[in-house]
């Protein structure tokens, strides 16, 4: 049986005690039936991965003791995923995939054609934590509050580049006098980036023109077929990771 | 509301009547509430996409009439996806993603670490059809029966190349005297290909050695994090489509 992996908020170091929340204690001792002396794997996004042992096990709490570091901390590239929330299950999938593919921050954005008005940030953050626990990750990306795409673009951080995926990529961009966006296939700049996935209905014409006019933006195409948002997220992150990220 | 898209088995041509199955009639007239004169979109994987009109609507049947072709037929590249079935929902996802990403044939394979012994081929085929209907595709890949990986490799078709994704890619391959497999990143051969995704536990050592020894095989890595099988399928198909397929 695979060992239990837990994300914790505490600092991790040899002999360091980790006090369990009620939920974590219920999971370890109620669901997984671990008892004193059992081993688990811990990570906190800062101190690497640690082998730990159950020191105290109660119904509503407990203490783990970190024993030794098993992997050094590593971080995904400084990449944000911006995506337009879709139906609940697909949104969960996008968060899960973003964690597996390796991003630092997950930013739900409302576009003109976004259907979903509300996003439960806490639920998505919990989902990101679980995904990291299950995929052997050492880092849990922060899930931001839902923002309007136009507000994010108006207040875009200096030095961060943006790859956006445009279904109509073939028809626009090149030759348009207002287009300042580059083509992602030719981009070689390292450093902070973001990948933007549009909603299932695509961007509005106004959004498309705006994106193509941004000097920090790079357009990428995702082939001749229409992809669902969760498929597009994995495909776009694959392109980015292969070209500029830690897959090379 | 988006127009109803239906895959049909019949030939499509101007004025051609298409007799509906009981299931299709129930969907169109019971679920979608269409009546005589309503328009739908049809495709059959051979004759392109057609605008059609409801000519007769009954509870248990009906007739559509093809009016005009709206898109010419296009086929995905001659690419097979070989994958080790996982839990039901994830297997459904892999089939759906394969259709969106563009493959000709979907082949479930049993590896040494495959958990799932049975695959309902008819259910997966129906799932592929629905995915094509929903993603605007013009082609439904055939879903093959479950085969053993070693049998497929032993009877491999002449001229078809194989990209396989190896989590341990960094440690093997180069420098091993038995390795005949190339590196996918350097592959430029067009023509028939297949992409193989391993089970969630990875390939066995024996399978890995076998794969690395195949003269028609090319190894690819999918980054430093562990990907679920459905994520790996999209990522691997993205790599292939960008390098050798119809995304370029």
From TrEMBL, chains A, B:
Domain Ribosomal RNA small subunit methyltransferase E PUA-like: 20-61
Keyword Transferase among UniProt keywords: yes
Family: Belongs to the RNA methyltransferase RsmE family.
Protein name from the UniProt record: Ribosomal RNA small subunit methyltransferase E
Cross-referenced NCBIfam families: PRK11713.3-5, RsmE family RNA methyltransferase
Phylogenetic lineage: Bacteria, Pseudomonadati, Pseudomonadota, Alphaproteobacteria, Rhodobacterales
MF terms in GO: rRNA (uridine-N3-)-methyltransferase activity
Catalyses which reaction(s): uridine(1498) in 16S rRNA + S-adenosyl-L-methionine = N(3)-methyluridine(1498) in 16S rRNA + S-adenosyl-L-homocysteine + H(+)
Domain of life: Bacteria
Source organism of this protein record: Roseivivax halotolerans
A GO CC annotation given for this chain: cytoplasm
Domain Ribosomal RNA small subunit methyltransferase E methyltransferase: from-to ranges: 76-241
InterPro entries: Alpha/beta_knot_MTases, PUA-like_sf, RsmE, RsmE_MTase_dom, RsmE_PUA-like, tRNA_m1G_MTases_N
Annotated GO biological process: rRNA base methylation
């Amino acid at each position: 049986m695979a060992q239990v992996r837990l994300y914790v908020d505490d600092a991790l170091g040899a002999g360091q005690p980790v006090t369990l929340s009620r939920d974590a204690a219920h999971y370890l001792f109620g669901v997984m039936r671990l008892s004193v002396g059992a081993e688990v794997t811990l990570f906190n996004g800062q101190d690497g991965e640690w082998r730990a042992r159950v020191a105290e096990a109660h119904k509503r709490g407990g203490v783990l003791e970190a024993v030794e570091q098993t992997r050094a901390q590593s971080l995904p590239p400084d990449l944000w995923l911006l995506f337009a929330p879709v139906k609940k299950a697909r949104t969960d999938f996008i968060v899960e995939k973003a964690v597996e593919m390796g991003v630092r921050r997950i930013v739900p954005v409302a576009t003109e054609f976004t259907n979903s008005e509300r996003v439960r940030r806490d639920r998505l953050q919990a989902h990101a934590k679980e995904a990291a626990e299950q995929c052997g990750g050492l880092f849990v990306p922060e899930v931001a509050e839902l923002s309007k795409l136009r507000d994010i673009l108006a207040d875009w951080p200096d030095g961060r580049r943006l790859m956006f995926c445009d279904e109509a990529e073939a028809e626009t961009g090149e030759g348009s006098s207002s287009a300042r966006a580059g083509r992602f296939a030719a981009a070689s700049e390292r450093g902070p980036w973001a990948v933007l996935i549009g909603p299932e209905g695509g961007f509005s014409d106004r959004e498309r023109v705006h994106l193509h006019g941004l000097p920090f933006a790079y357009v990428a195409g995702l082939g001749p077929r229409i992809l669902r948002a969760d498929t597009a997220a994995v495909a776009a992150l694959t392109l980015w990771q292969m070209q500029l990220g830690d897959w090379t």
